[in-house]
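Box 3.1 A note on notation
Throughout this textbook, protein chains are presented in two layers. The first layer is the amino acid sequence; the second is a token string describing backbone geometry. Keep the layers aligned when reading.
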Amino acid sequence: MITMYVKTGCPYCAMALAKVDDLGLEINELNIADPGVLDELMEKGGKRQVPYLVDESTGTTMYESADIVDYLEKQYNNKDTSETPPTEN
């Protein structure tokens, strides 16, 4: 399960969430404006910074939206990247 800590109106969070949508991932999105969520973020990550990603399936945690986008792309992009056979003419 992927959890992402975010804040409403945060452009960096929006960038990371756009990649989540692009890849069709289901995540647990937690807003630090909600009661107790900021305390949980501070306990897990040690900083008030968002977005913060926790991927329980790989044991990965990270800040920085660009790093999160790169990680999600590499880890969860299921597009077929194999070489396409040539078409017959």
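The domain at 2-76 is CATH 3.40.30.10 (Glutaredoxin). The chain is about 40% helix and 20% strand.
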